[in-house]
Amino acid sequence: MQGLAHELDPVDQRIVALLQEDGRASLARIADNVDLSPDAVRGRLARLTADGVVRVIGVVDPATLGYGALATLAIRFRGSLDRLVEELRKHPQVTFLALTIGAYQAVCEVAARDDRALSEFVHGVIGEIDGVQDLELWRFLGVDKWEVQGRPPPPTRARELALSLDEIDVQLLRALAKAPRLKYSELQKIVDQPYAVVRRRTQTLFDEGVIVATAVVDLVTAQPRVMALLGMQLSGDAEASLKLLGELREVHILMHVGGRLNLLAEVACASPEDLGQFIARVAALPGVRAVESLIMTHFSILPMPWAIATTSHAVLNGHAVGDSHGS
Predict the structure, then answer these.
(1) Which string of b and e fits 271-302 if b means at least 16 CB within 10 Å?
(2) Which of 230, 243, 238, 248 has the alpha carbon at shortest distance from 286?
(3) 20: number of CA atoms within 13 Å, CB side?
(4) Residue pLDDT, tens place only, 14-27
(5) Lowest mean pLDDT segment, chosen from 84-88, 217-221, 298-302, 316-320
(6) Phi, psi (5° rounding) for residue 118?
(7) Which of 41, 111, 196, 284 is such that its CA lies 20 to 30 A from the CA of 141?
(8) What is the H or E stretch that residue 132 is in?
């Protein structure tokens, strides 16, 4: 299990920055920018991805892949957390997983076709894992802020173009969302179509912005910070506080949810003391009746950076979700 901090040196940081700009950038192009050989870049990238610090993924609108229901799930678990991670990694519906300190031992993001499928997966699959003692589900209802590292703004034409996609396009998107650097010959085997068709369709998906290749980083491990998920119960007079929360730099994600809580926020602070002070500030805001926190110890599944548009009363500025975590 990953646990030790992995400090990125300046060359690592430059490689990651280039991949965040273009996740399909060639090794030769990256090498030219960091003054290394392509083989040296390949070695560094292999180390970072093997350690779970960096992951190159494709940003795509979840609706394009048939996911109409997204939620965050908190899990109370007794037993080996390694075993829990192993079980959850078997399911593509789990798009982000962090181990946590607090009332729950893990928190994950889950995607499903619709609310019925979401409920069946959470309670019928995750709830049946040996050692799972309790679950709490928060259904995503609206996004006020989605500014998480590695997740660019959603393509403006993604939903429009999604209407013209066929099953081959969707198969390509599913494969590219997980591994956008796949070669055309590898994609050809997945979709069982002629090479020329796969090449043309893949290029079109990227050129039209239906999918964007980028890199996401485990901030807890690579750039040690204290990251936490805050859940809030609100009263009717919280509108001004919502606006203030969205402006705070510590807040990466701010999302309205259904369930026992009304609002979820993913935050990053420099130290435990800073996090404690931040929680106290949030708890003192008008309209915030209660604040609960889960401190993330590390990411076991890096967030799938969904391209999710914000609600009318906020502007999407760029991550982060996954991302999100996930996202």
Answers:
(1) eeeebeebbeebeebebbeebbbbbbbbbbbb
(2) 238
(3) 20
(4) 998 899 889 999 99
(5) 316-320
(6) -60, -50
(7) 284
(8) strand 132-146
Q: Residue 181: CB partners within 8 Å, gap ≥ 6?
A: 23, 24, 56, 213
| Pick from 131, 154, 162, 145: nearest CA to 58 | 154
Q: pLDDT tens digits for 139-158?
A: 999 888 877 654 444 444 54
Q: What are phi and psi of 277, to 5 degrees?
A: -65, -40
Q: CA nearest 263: which of 146, 105, 142?
A: 142
Q: How far apart are CA 61 and CA 326, in angstroms?
A: 13
> Which residue would you say has higher pLDDT here, 177 or 321?
177
Strand 106-112 and strand 94-101: the pairing is antiparallel
Kind and range of the H or E element at 31?
helix 27-34
Map residue 60 onto helix, strand or coil.
Answer: strand
- Whether 261 and 293 have beta carbons less than 8 Å apart is answered as no
Query: Which domains can be identified in the chain, with CATH numbers?
Result: 145-151+220-301 (3.30.70.920), 166-209 (1.10.10)
What pLDDT was estimated at residue 159? 53
Nearest to 75 by CA among 131, 142, 153: 131
Q: CB under 8 Å, gap of 24 or more: what pairs does 78-85 form?
A: 78/131, 78/133, 79/130, 79/131, 80/131, 81/1, 81/105, 81/106, 82/1, 83/131, 84/129, 84/131, 84/132, 85/1, 85/300, 85/301
Beta bridge partners of 213: 58
- What's the mean pLDDT in 286-307? 86
What are 103-144's pLDDT values in tens digits?
999 999 999 999 999 999 999 999 999 999 999 999 999 888
DSSP strand pairing (251-258 vs 288-301) = unpaired
Distances (CA, A) of 107 to 35, 59, 135, 275: 40, 21, 10, 18
**Assigned token pair, 132:** 């799972």
Query: Quick check: 55 pLDDT over 50?
Result: yes
**Residue 120 CA neighbour count, 13 Å, CB half:** 6
Q: Dig out the tokens for 212 from the structure.
A: 């964007």
